[in-house]
Structures are given as C-alpha cells and as structure tokens.
Design a protein that fits this description.
mainly beta; six-stranded parallel sheet; Polymer-forming cytoskeletal protein; BacA/B
C-alpha cells in the first residue's frame, strides 16, 4: 500500500527482478530477492537471494549471491554462500569462492576456485564434524593402549 509505514518483508526465494532478453543493463545491481538475467548486464551484482543467468544471457559482472545458476556466458568473479551450478550450456570465466560447485557435462569453467568449509553451527541438526584422519589416528592409539585388540 502506498504510504504504509510498515516495511514489506521480502522473500529471497522468489524472483522479483527479470532482465529480459532484449534488455542491456549497465551499472551495479543490489537486490534482496532473487534475480533472473536473460539479456546483457555489465556491472556488479549483490543479491541476498539466488541469481539465474539464462542460456542467451551475456554477463560481465562480479557476483555475490546465495546460489547461482549459469546457463549463459559470465565473465567475472563469483562468491556464493551456497551452490554454484554451471549448466551444460553455461560458460564461466572468472574465479569462484563457493560452498558447493557443480559443472554439468558440456559446461565450461576457466578460473580458480576456493571452497568454503561449512562450520558446525551452519549445519542443521548440530551434528559433529569429524576429521577422518585424526579419528583414525585416535582409534589406532586407543587400540595400541589396550594391547592391540
């Protein structure tokens, strides 16, 4: 409602912005909700939601988002809190810093990657993170202390 003093809560899971196939956009984009790009974009993106780059899209941008799906062409660095997916038609030239990275067969990635490690508090259920090598060493030490049995 116009003039309402109550701020509207934005759902980061819904796409509220579409840059259409016939659109050329230049400049920085900041969004609380998800974004879909089908046209051309030159400029950085900061998005609290997800970003989808369509098959015919051409994007020259550094991107920060929750999850990113690339089906078109992207030149720039990408940082996600979640997953980066390069589909079979996708091309990504740039460096990435993500938690999860998937390149489908036929997809192209040229750059360097860094993977974020999820902390125990980030995981639902509060399970323990176990270092397999340290666990094996601890088990071997326990067996040696108990006489090898």
């Amino acid at each position: 409602m116009l003039g309402s003093s109550k701020p509207k809560r934005i759902d980061t899971k819904t796409t509220d912005t579409l840059i259409g196939a016939s659109t050329i956009c230049e400049g920085k984009i900041m969004s609380e909700a998800s974004l879909r790009i089908e046209g051309q974009l030159h400029g950085d993106i900061e998005c609290a939601g997800d970003i989808t780059i369509g098959e015919n899209a051409v994007v020259q941008s550094n991107i920060q988002a929750r999850d990113v799906i690339i089906a078109g062409k992207v030149k720039g660095n990408i940082q996600t809190k979640g997953k980066l997916l390069v589909t079979s038609s996708g091309v990504l030239v740039g460096n990435i810093d993500v938690r999860s990275f998937i390149v489908q067969e036929g997809g192209i990635f040229q750059g360097s990657s860094a993977m974020q490690i999820a902390s125990v508090s980030d995981k639902s259920g509060g399970g323990k993170v176990i270092d397999a090598q340290a666990h094996k060493q601890q088990k071997n030490e326990q067996q040696a202390a108990s006489g090898g049995n």
